[in-house]
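PROTEIN SPECIFICATION:
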Amino acid sequence: MAPRRTRHPAALAALAVGGAWTAAYAWDRRRIVRDPARLPLKRDLDELGGRHVTVAADDGTALRVRVIGPEDAPTVVLIHGWTCALEFWTLQLQALAGELRLVSYDMRGHGGSGASGGRDYSIEAYRDDLDAVLRATVPAGERATLVGHSLGAMTIVAWAAEHADELPERVAAAGLFSTGVGDLISSSLILPATGLGDRIEQELGQLALSASVPLPKRPTPISSRIVRYVALCGAASPATVAFCEQMVLRCPRDVRANTGSTLSRLELSEGLAALTVPTTVIVGRDDRLTPPVHSERMADGLPQVHELIEIDAVGHMAPVEAPERTTAAIRSLVAAGRDARASQPATVAAG
């Protein structure tokens, strides 16, 4: 009689883990396919028309820019956040393409833009890239509305501080969505308190933000759950999480790490005073990366707060988690910038 075979416990454990992984992946895929949010997020932006532009940054980095909407409409410049791409704004682009001239671009190293030759992912480099895009895409004499998410909003504040004297003639209004201007680590709710003291927790946070950790090339059950926890919230739909996850995974490892290092040392609070135009601040109440305390501090430091909006059951990705509310805020902001300009007294030349 042949001896009975017994499976080694490690082999049984591996089979169990593999089975659970396969089941979790299949479950995730079914939920994504059935999610009504999936089709709008997957829509090809080429269907909206417009044109593609390549803008050279001051250091020669090629920036991928898309311009959509009527050429004679007010210009709104949309700036995405860390590890994202211009497609992050797809729901706003679809909703507003018929009424506004929308300029969106990939920040250096992100999406279809070129990598920085000198690995310069400082806030100053991002600031100067924004200025290059404005010079290339905003018609002479027009005042654009600037709307940024996360790092994109930080870039707006940095640009305002550098160009304070010319800002009133170049910018009509500003939107700062899901962002902060400093103290990003100590206020974050991502990492649990260690009890080791502020200095050590600050150093741990800096290491986490700047870590050059390899990520999978394709979505996995683990990566989707990490992205949901860090960047979204429990209420986010499966397709919304998958949409954000795919962008994060596509961001090059060195860009993610070097930009994260910039964020870990960021201090822009003094730049808020330079934003002397109507400004809307939006934050999700479940934002772990830049919790509402950041938005409240910014509102205290801004000269003209048009709206401070806190949205329930929304994490860090407000424009995709709450697209209708975010889009309505952009419309209101454009109108506020126009009204503020109309209420200013005309300048009469002396003579």
Remarks:
- The radius of gyration is 22 Å.
- The CA atoms of residues 85 and 106 lie 5 Å apart.
